[in-house]
Amino acid sequence: MTDSDSVIDALTRAAVVHFASARPEEPAMWGTGFFVAPGWVLTCAHVLAPHLRGDPGRVFQLSGSEVNGGEPLDARLDHWLLDGEPAAQSVPVEADLALVRVLDSGVEHECVWLTDRTDHPGGRGVVQGYRPRADRRAVRWKATARINGFDDDYGMRFVPEAEFPKGGSGSPVLDVHTGSVVGVLKSRRAGRDGGMAIAATALRRFGPVYQRLMAAHDRWHGQSPKITGHNWIERQHQLPGAGVHTGGDQWSPRDRREALALLSSVPPPDGIRPVAELAKKARGSVAAPPGQLPPHAWRDGHGLLYEAGRPVAAIAALHYLQLVVEYERDRGGDPAALADWVAHRLQDVSRIVHTVVTQASLPPGIGRPAGPSGLSRLGVRYPRLGDGSAIVIVELEPVADAVAPRFYWRVRVDDGHDLNEPLHEEQHGDGVPPERLVRRLRGPLAEVFASVDSPGTPAPLEVALPAEHFDTAVHRWQLTEMARLHHPAYIGVRRMVVLRDITRRGEPDAVWVRRWREMERSGALTAVRTPPPRQVPRARHFEEMGPSAVPVLCRPAGSGVGRRAMRMALDAGYGVALWHTDGHPDHGCTDFCERLHDGAARFLEQAADPLELPDRLRRIRDDISGSRNGGHWAEGVALLYDDPDRPLPGDGGGPVDSP
C-alpha cells in the first residue's frame, strides 16, 4: 500500500501547528509542531532553541488552520531534551525533541495517534506541516517519502525522492501501513531531496514526563471521536498493519485503544524490568526481537506484542494485561476497571486457552516477596535494629593535615553483635588517596560479603564519611575487575548502597532522633528542592520543612552551595536526603535539574516508608545499567540513609593526624 488513508491524512493535518513570536513585529514562522495530547505539542528542540536562548520561559504563539478557528494560541516550552543552554551547532538526534504546553487549557483540538511499537518502521511515510511563504507567513505542505534507513537508536532516514522545505522541522511522520505517527521530521538535505526524522521512541527519554504525556494521549484517544467526528482507530482497523480480524482470537486496533486507555489509569511501573519481564512472559517466555529499545511505560510493553509487524493473538495481549493487573494488585493497587475489561474481552477468545489469563502469575523476581509479617512488599526493606540482618559498614576518615585528600579506613559488620570490633582497618601510615580506595578495599570487602551475604539477598553497604566527601560515587565502585556475566560489576547495582555522616558517631542527638521519628510517622515522603529556586540555603528552610520532607539537591553536596545546604540539613536532623554527585552548571539550573527533581519526587512518593528507599534506588540503578542510559536522572544520585537507631560506634576521635 503506497497511498495514505484520506481520513487519517485529514486528522493529522488538523493536529499540525506552526510557531511564531508573540510580537507582531516578528511575523516569521519558526517551524512546525503537532498536538500529541490535550494541550501538549511535540516539535524539534532546534526549532525553538534560537528563539528561547537565554529565556526558555518566554511565551510565544502557535497557530493551525484547524485549531482555535485559525487564531493564535499562547504557549510556552514545558520540557526539552537539551541539557543546558542550547548550543549554536546542530542538535544531536537523541536530544532534538521539545514539548510545548498551550496556556489555555480549554481549547479543543485534534491529537495524532503515536505508535506504541518499538521496532523501526519501514516503507512509505507521509509528512505534512508548514513552510514560510515569500512574505514569511506560513502555508501548509505535504510530501510522501520512503523510510529506508536508520541512524543509531532514534534516527530515521528517507530515500532522496521528496524535498522537505525549510520550516518543516517538527512535522509528524505518518506510517501509511499502520496509520500511526512514528516520527518527527528533523532535517532536510540542503538543496537536495531526502532528510532525517527522529523516531517517536525518543520520547521515552523524557522520563516521568513521558509517562504523563502518553497517559494523557491514550485517555484522549480512548474517548474519541472528538473534534472532527472521525477517529484514528476506526480507520486504522482497515489498514494492512492492523492484521486480520475475523473473530475474537485476533487483537484489533479497537482492542488496543481500549487496553491502552485503561493502562493509562494504572500507576507507572517501577522501572524497565517489570514491563520487559511481563511482556516476555506474555509472549510465551520469548523475549522481543533484539534491537528494540527498553520499555518505560505499560503501553511500551504492549508495543512489544507484535510479530513481523502484526499484532500478536488476543490471548497474548490479554495475558500481558492480566499480568499488569496482578503486578498492580501485588503492590497494593486496585486496577478494577482493567481487570473487568480483561475478563469481559476474554469471553470472545476460545475457552481452551482461558487458563493462560485466569491463572496468570508474575514471573520470578517480579513483585513483592513476603515479609516476616506475612504481608507482601515491593523489593527488599532495609534492615532495622534487631532483625538479624547484616549490614557491612565502611568508615572513611580523612587524614588531618594531608596536603591532598587521603583516608584511613575500617570495615565493620552490624549484625547485632560486636559492632565495635573492626574486621579490617588501616589506621596508620600516610593513608589511601581517593583514587586508590576501591583497589585497597576490594579484598577486605570481598571476604566480608562472602561471609554475610544470603542467597539472592546481598548485604547492604553503608559508607560513612564526612559531608565534604559525600560526592564520592560509591555506587559506581567495582569490587571485581572480572565479574561473572550474570553478576553486575557495579556495587550499587548488585546491592543497596547508602551514605552516612561519620561525624554522627556515638549517642544520637535529640534533633536527629526527633526528625527521624516524625518522618517514620508521616507516611508518603515528599521531595523538597534544596535550596529553593534562586535562593541561598538558610537554616530556617530546613527547620520549617514538614515531617515527610526529604531534601533533594540537583548539585554536589560536598562543595559550594550544596555543601552549605547539606551541612544545614544534617544540623536540622535529617537522616534521608538525595543529591547529584556529578557537578552543576555555574549559571543556574538546567533541564536536567528539572528531570532530576521530577524523578526524585516520583521515587519518594512511590515508597510506602523510608525502609524501601535503598532497594528502590538499587533497582533503578539496575535498570540504568541494563539500558546503558547515562542520561538518567538517578545515574549520579547518592542517598543519605542515616538511621539513629543504629548509630555508628563512638571512638572519641575526629580526623586522624597524619604521621
From TrEMBL:
<dbReference type="Pfam" id="PF13365">
    <property type="entry name" value="Trypsin_2"/>
</dbReference>
<dbReference type="InterPro" id="IPR043504">
    <property type="entry name" value="Peptidase_S1_PA_chymotrypsin"/>
</dbReference>
<dbReference type="InterPro" id="IPR009003">
    <property type="entry name" value="Peptidase_S1_PA"/>
</dbReference>
<dbReference type="Pfam" id="PF20028">
    <property type="entry name" value="VMAP-C"/>
</dbReference>
<protein>
    <submittedName>
        <fullName>Trypsin-like peptidase domain-containing protein</fullName>
    </submittedName>
</protein>
<feature type="domain" description="vWA-MoxR associated protein C-terminal">
    <location>
        <begin position="406"/>
        <end position="644"/>
    </location>
</feature>
<dbReference type="InterPro" id="IPR045450">
    <property type="entry name" value="VMAP_C"/>
</dbReference>
